[in-house]
């Protein structure tokens, strides 16, 4: 049986599944339920300064987009950090940690860009027995207007400076939570590292407007006839988050910096993918908000089964295993040729592949009598669109052409495995190698 | 006086009114908005969709389902009605299991088609509840067309002609319009007087003048119609019934299933409608199934449907056969009636077992019966001087008959199955051809 325990920057948890800082972790009641359900750890809902509590809107704070059968694909929120008093939160954290010493509790923090403010809150948190802190530099709405959250995360100098203050005033492990609302995610990650942070976590939510009410002519959620952008999360953001994780994992300047992966993680497989790209553990918010805490049992059993099947004994065996395979376009092998192939036994004759290829791609699918769909190898550029639109899984697959075979579209003979051309050698590249095409029969 | 299923003879009131009401409720209740959204989500928006090709009126099914899925069922209804003005009725009565839904690629994928018929009903019901039929008439052409028969074929033809600006004189022999929609289709497929409501809605386009009680061959003659109008369309259905041609067919208690059904459809109090204790239905088509099922639902103790060939040869679909079985109808195949016995009132029917060619095998059996319903097929009434083919008025693809200026369609004419939707397609296409020929293009 696979061992799911993880050690993330010295913080141990029985499994890599943590709840992200958000409503699921906003109070003792929820966190106890989460731990009972099996979550390995939580990042407590972001705490702010002592004083009058934060005020949230009392109208709707979420918007959403849905897929088939109203499956929630993306959630958008305009909630601020915790609106409960600092003292109560701290007492609750302390109590829960005492009762669940084997689970990870990290406390998320957001205070103004003043050294004193950070020193004060760190002092307060240190009394709770929490395992670490996460600096919320990501919240893109509301708090950002007050110079916090993503307003900090978008300025690498602030990130570095505050991380430095935190390390100076506390010896707790420190995670910097990054905002994706930035041109190059590596910049704040590098800044966090320079400031001495132990890890980064990403992504926080993406600025978004999810819908417009066409009767009221107003973005939703509507608050008394007005709307504002919110932060987007859920399955829809996973691809964006994974790319950002991979960029940090493979950048020489941040390589080795521990990453807590967040963004759209809904199943064990999503978690495994983030971890393969370099995340040491994962955090989940929307999936828990959609289905409740019990989903963690599927994540645990799924990850264990997969690890057993693959022979991975501990999570460390596969964390970052896909990172070296992430590269730049210019290093891709341009002599690698595949062709779409339709399994006529599985085909249900819907014609979607045909419509897609005929109308919008390369006219490489033929519709024969009796709705028999076949690929024309001399036209197929292997774009994969048909595979993506086919409603039957594995009905269309990509066949890899073997060395010596001829690509009927270009006339090129597939070269031996080690004799590959990337853009860097390609004759069409003004800076490439003009002789590299001769062996391909072109 | 109350009766029960076991009361001997042909009597009314075998079941209490609440049970009857329940028995004759909507067979497939309408989808609500959520159910429709879930059902619509399953459509793949197929290219050159096979379902569409399987629909005799070629409704753009993927488009209308997508319109439902995107929250515009009224637009979906327009897509349906553009091709099939009786889309509301067809949604209820089409044997979708042998038409669009049989062709749905989801059958191949998981043996469970998109619920096209029920989605069609959702869309058309939504539009019809909101108001009048949505089409406008073109500028008057000054032409007048006679349409004989106000069944699905005649109605579809009349509506399309009116839309193109022609004046339509619609004649029907019966007291009410609608044809078999009004007098034939099983009650539980078209509840709450839908047939009549749909005709009224359709007539809302204007320019259609209906005369009931006017029969071709009686008050009307084909020659006269041709003389008085710019064109004539015949949608007269199948007014005759086939004879059993055996002894005892004239006994009390033996009648045509279509008449039994017409009485049932016209009854405003089912507890007053008499039905036998032991009912024997002879035939294997939709009429036989409908008569048998409805006799059972009225409270007959025992209903037996006897068909002279194998199950697979039955014109009624497997779905219809299963429906009958589920309602408690016993189906006997490979048997043909030899003689109906009784003094004045029918008492029993003697049957021969038959082979696959419906030839007697020499062996047989007798079924006790106090009511016998004959459903061995309808046939064309008087076709005047028109050329026929296989017992139907011969028509071209656009409905032209052998006589210039006369078009025909629906059950009375060749081409396609005898179905409501086929009749609508014929009527529509003939109207287009009439329009084209009248406008000289
Ligand atoms: C019992 C039964 C159940 C059925 N169930 C279904 C079903 O579930 N689904 C389905 O798709 N189809 C069903 N059908 C078939 C369907 O009803 C017919 O195919 C369809 O009604 C044909 O339409 P039509 O307009 O050609 O003829 P009809 O509907 O028969 O209409 C013909 C009209 O012409 C009138 N007429 C006849 N002769 C004359 C005359 N000489 N002069 C003036 N008017 C005349 C009649 O009064 C009638 O109103 C069923 C048929 C029967 C009998
Ligand atoms: C309602 C809501 C409130 C959130 N509040 C916080 C917060 O206070 N602090 C924080 O760091 N992230 C907050 N987040 C962001 C989540 O922690 C997480 O980064 C984001 O939702 C992406 O993960 P997911 O796709 O699993 O939801 C919030 C998200 C939601 C939906
Ligand atoms: S891979 Fe692209 S080009 Fe080839 S058949 Fe599929 S859609 Fe067409
Ligand atoms: S999309 Fe898939 S199932 Fe549909 S026709 Fe193409 S190969 Fe067949
Ligand atoms: S065949 Fe089925 S899935 Fe395809 S368009 Fe028609 S209803 Fe939709």
TrEMBL record, chain A:
InterPro entries (UniProt xref): 4Fe4S_Fe-S-bd, 4Fe4S_Fe_S_CS, Aldolase_TIM, Dihydroorotate_DH_cat
Listed EC numbers: 1.3.1.1
Residues in 4Fe-4S ferredoxin-type domain copies: 338-370, 371-401
Catalytic activity from the UniProt record: 5,6-dihydrouracil + NAD(+) = uracil + NADH + H(+); 5,6-dihydrothymine + NAD(+) = thymine + NADH + H(+)
Cell wall biogenesis/degradation in keyword set: no
Uppermost EC category: oxidoreductase
Keywords: Iron, Iron-sulfur, Metal-binding, Oxidoreductase
Family: Belongs to the dihydropyrimidine dehydrogenase family.
PANTHER family assigned to the protein according to its UniProt record, in alphabetical order: DIHYDROPYRIMIDINE DEHYDROGENASE [NADP(+)]
Name of the protein described by the UniProt record: dihydrouracil dehydrogenase (NAD(+))
Gene coding for it: preA
UniProtKB/TrEMBL annotation, chain B:
Residue ranges of every copy of the FAD/NAD(P)-binding domain listed in the record: 144-427
Listed GO MF terms: iron-sulfur cluster binding; oxidoreductase activity
Domain of life: Bacteria
Domain Dihydroprymidine dehydrogenase: 22-131
Transmembrane residue ranges: none
InterPro entries: DPD_II, FAD/NAD-bd_sf, FAD/NAD-binding_dom, Helical_ferredxn
SUPFAM superfamilies named in the record: alpha-helical ferredoxin (SSF46548), Nucleotide-binding domain (SSF51971)
PANTHER family according to UniProt: GLUTAMATE SYNTHASE [NADPH] SMALL CHAIN (PTHR42783), GLUTAMATE SYNTHASE [NADPH] SMALL CHAIN-RELATED (PTHR42783:SF3)
Official protein name in the record: NAD(P)-dependent oxidoreductase
Organism, as annotated: Maritimibacter fusiformis
């Amino acid at each position: 049986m696979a061992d799911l325990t993880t050690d993330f920057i010295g913080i141990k948890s029985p499994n890599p599944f943590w709840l992200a800082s958000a409503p699921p972790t906003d109070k003792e009641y929820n966190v106890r339920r989460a731990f009972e359900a099996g979550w390995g750890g939580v990042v407590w809902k972001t705490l702010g300064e002592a004083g009058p509590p934060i005020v949230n809107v009392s109208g709707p704070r979420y918007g959403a987009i849905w897929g088939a059968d109203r499956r929630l694909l993306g959630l958008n929120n305009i909630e601020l950090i915790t609106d409960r008093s600092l003292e109560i939160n701290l007492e609750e954290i302390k109590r829960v940690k005492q009762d669940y010493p084997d689970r990870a509790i990290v406390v998320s923090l957001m205070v103004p860009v003043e050294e004193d403010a950070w020193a004060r809150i760190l002092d307060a948190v240190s009394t709770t027995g929490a395992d670490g802190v996460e600096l919320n530099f990501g919240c893109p709405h509301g708090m950002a207007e007050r110079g916090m959250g993503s307003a900090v995360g978008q300025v690498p100098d602030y990130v570095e400076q505050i991380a430095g203050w935190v390390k100076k005033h506390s010896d707790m492990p420190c995670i910097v939570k990054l905002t994706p609302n930035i041109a190059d995610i590596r910049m704040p990650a590098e800044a966090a590292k320079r400031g001495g942070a132990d890890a980064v976590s990403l992504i926080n939510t993406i600025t978004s407007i999810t819908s417009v009410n066409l009767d009221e002519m107003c973005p939703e959620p509507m608050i008394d006839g007005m709307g504002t952008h919110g932060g987007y999360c859920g399955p829809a953001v996973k691809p964006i988050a994974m790319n950002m994780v991979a960029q940090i994992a493979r950048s020489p300047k941040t390589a080795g910096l521990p990453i807590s992966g967040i963004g759209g993680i809904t199943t064990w497989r999503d978690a495994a993918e983030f971890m393969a790209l370099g995340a040491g553990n994962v955090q989940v918010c929307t999936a828990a908000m959609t289905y409740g805490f019990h989903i963690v049992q599927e994540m645990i059993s799924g990850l264990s089964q997969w690890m057993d099947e693959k022979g991975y004994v501990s999570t460390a065996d596969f964390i970052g295993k896909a990172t070296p395979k992430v590269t730049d376009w210019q290093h891709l092998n341009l002599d690698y040729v595949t062709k779409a192939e339709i399994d006529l036994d599985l085909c249900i004759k819907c014609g979607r592949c045909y419509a897609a290829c005929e109308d919008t791609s390369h006219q490489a699918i033929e519709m024969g009598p009796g709705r028999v769909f076949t690929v024309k190898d001399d036209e197929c550029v292997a774009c994969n669109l048909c595979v993506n639109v086919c409603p039957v899984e594995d009905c269309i697959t990509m066949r890899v052409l073997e060395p010596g075979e001829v690509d009927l579209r270009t006339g090129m003979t597939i070269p031996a495995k080690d004799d590959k051309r990337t853009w860097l050698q390609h004759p069409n590249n003004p800076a490439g190698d003009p002789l590299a095409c001769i062996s391909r029969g072109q | 006086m109350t009766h029960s299923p076991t009361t001997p003879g042909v009597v009314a009131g075998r079941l209490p009114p609440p049970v009857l009401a329940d028995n004759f409720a909507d067979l497939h209740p309408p989808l609500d908005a959520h159910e429709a959204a879930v059902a619509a989500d399953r459509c793949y928006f197929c290219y050159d969709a096979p379902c569409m090709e399987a629909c005799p009126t070629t409704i753009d099914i993927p488009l209308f389902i997508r319109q439902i899925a995107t929250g515009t069922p009224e637009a979906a209804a327009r897509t349906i009605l553009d091709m099939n003005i009786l889309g509301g009725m067809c949604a209820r009565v089409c044997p979708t299991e042998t038409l669009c839904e049989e062709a749905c690629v989801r059958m191949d994928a998981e043996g469970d088609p998109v619920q096209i018929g029920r989605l069609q009903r959702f869309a058309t019901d939504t539009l019809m509840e909101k108001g009048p039929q949505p089409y406008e008439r073109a500028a008057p052409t000054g032409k007048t067309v006679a349409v004989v028969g106000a069944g699905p074929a005649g109605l579809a033809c009349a509506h399309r002609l009116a839309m193109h600006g022609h004046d339509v004189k619609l004649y029907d022999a019966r007291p009410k319009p609608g044809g078999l929609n009004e007098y034939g289709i099983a009650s539980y497929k078209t509840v709450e007087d839908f047939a009549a409501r749909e005709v009224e809605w359709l007539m809302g386009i204007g320019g259609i003048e209906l005369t009931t009680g006017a029969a071709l061959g009686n008050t009307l003659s084909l020659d006269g119609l041709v003389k008085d109008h710019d064109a004539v369309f015949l949608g007269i259905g199948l007014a005759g019934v086939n004879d059993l041609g055996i002894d005892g067919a004239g006994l009390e208690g033996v009648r045509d299933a279509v008449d039994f059904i017409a009485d049932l459809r016209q009854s405003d109090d089912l507890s007053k409608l008499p039905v036998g204790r032991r009912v024997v239905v002879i035939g294997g088509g939709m009429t036989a199934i409908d008569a048998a099922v409805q006799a059972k639902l009225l409270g007959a103790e025992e209903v037996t449907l006897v068909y002279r060939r194998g199950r697979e040869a039955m014109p009624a679909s497997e779905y219809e056969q299963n429906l009958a079985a589920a309602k408690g109808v016993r189906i006997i195949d490979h048997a043909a009636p030899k003689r109906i016995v009784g003094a004045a009132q029918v008492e029993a029917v003697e049957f021969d077992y038959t082979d696959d060619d419906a030839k007697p095998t020499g062996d047989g059996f007798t079924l006790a019966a106090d009511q016998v319903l004959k459903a061995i097929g309808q046939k064309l009434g008087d076709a005047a001087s028109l050329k026929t083919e296989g017992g139907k008025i011969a028509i071209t693809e656009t409905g032209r008959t052998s006589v210039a200026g006369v078009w025909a369609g629906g059950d009375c004419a060749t081409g396609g199955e005898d179905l409501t939707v086929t009749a609508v397609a014929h009527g529509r296409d003939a109207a287009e051809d009439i329009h084209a020929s009248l406008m000289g293009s």
